[in-house]
Amino acid sequence: MESELQYWVAFNRIPGLGPVRINLLMRYFGSLAEAWNASSGALRAAGLDNRTVHSILESRPSISPEEEINKLERHHIQALTINDPAYPRPLKEIDHPPPVLYVRGQLLPRDEWAVTVVGTRGATPYGRQVAHDFAWGLAKNGITIISGLARGIDAVAHQAALEAGGRTVAVQACGLDMVYPPENKALAQRILGQGALLSEYPLGTTPRADYFPRRNRIMSGLALGTLVVEAGERSGALITARLALDQNREVFAAPGNIYQERSQGTNRLIREGLAKLVLSIEDILAELNLTQVTQQLSMTELLPTDPVEEAVLKSLAQGPCHIDEVRRGSGLPVNQVASALALLELRGLVHQVGPMTFARAREAAGHYA
Fold first, then answer.
1. What is d(CA 233, CA 230) in angstroms, rounded to the nearest whole number?
2. Domain CATH number, residue 271
3. How far apart are CA 320 and CA 350, in angstroms?
4. What are the strands of the beta sheet with 357-360, ordered from one edge?
């Protein structure tokens, strides 16, 4: 499985190979490992155009699939293919989901209960207050806050979720070996302790203007709904709202000052019936049927552990371990270890004490010593 993963990551480095073309390769060859060494004729037979075939042949000699995996491990980044059980289920439902999703930190099953919060980078004091109050309140109610780590509303939403002791996920438009904008590096580090950084772009990819609209489809696709707090007529937040509608997700908007330019886009969404006007977090929780999330999360702690989870717990007997150490200690594949740790954390049996590093909770330690 790991050998196949390295070819997914390698193909993801080749320009012009998006979800559609990778699907063509998978259908024709049966695996990307087979496709990697295919001849130009075989690549054309798979349905690729001449330009894409040329891009593959030109790029392939400079890419080492094995080294791509090694680089990810050095940066403590996990690559999830769309076929991986740990790949976020809501994201599989959108048009053109990323074939490979890079994860720094940890995604949990509970992150499917999520709301995306977006808005302008040049937020007003009113916009910042609204973003903070909504994100804080939603996080307090067990809802994961998703945003894009941008200046303004995005950063406020992430910070509020962290302050509430909740979870938050940031989707970047660059490789996960960097943070954009750079001034949010400390915020990104804090997010790793209570959530994850995500990207569809390989390491070393610097941000470009056209990457941000593409990134937005992931932000909206991960969540049950998107809240637009403050946005002008040409704000990128409106792109996220439109994508959410296309993905059959709910869109909410907080009303703004009718004389304020930064509220024009938000108010238009409401006026045209594209977004539901919200005045409190209760409006969102009720609309998404999320009023019982806290109780549902408590119930998951009563579920029994299976042999895989028990092996993972035993591998943590000597204290906190990085996920790679857990994998070696348990002798299990990394995808099973990641899934087990996510479920164990959800049940309160382990907790994350650093980037990709876990320790057993006191109750678990007594039982599995």
1. 10
2. 3.40.50.450
3. 10
4. 321-322, 357-360, 350-354
Top-confidence residue, 307 or 280 = 280
149: helix, strand or coil? coil
Domain boundary among 68, 91, 122: 68
Highest mean pLDDT among 20-24, 197-201, 305-309: 197-201
Strand (E) or helix (H) holding 168: strand 168-171
Token pair belonging to 256: 């703004």
Q: Is the model's pTM score more than 0.85? A: no
Range of the domain at 321: 301-368
Cβ neighbours of 58 (radius 10 Å): 11
Q: What is the H or E stretch that residue 78 is in?
A: strand 77-81
Structure tokens at 20: 């559609």
Q: Are residues 137 and 267 in the same domain?
A: yes
Say what the pLDDT of residue 329 is: 85
CA 179/CA 181 separation, integer angstroms: 6
Strand, coil or helix: 308: helix
The DSSP secondary structure of 238-288, one letter per residue, reads: HHHHHHHHHTT-EEEE----TT-GGGHHHHHHHHTTSSEE-SSHHHHHHHT
Q: What is the pLDDT of residues 40-92, one digit of tens each?
A: 999 999 999 999 999 999 999 999 999 999 999 999 999 999 989 999 999 99
At residue 16, the pLDDT reads: 82
Residue 304 predicted with pLDDT over 80: no
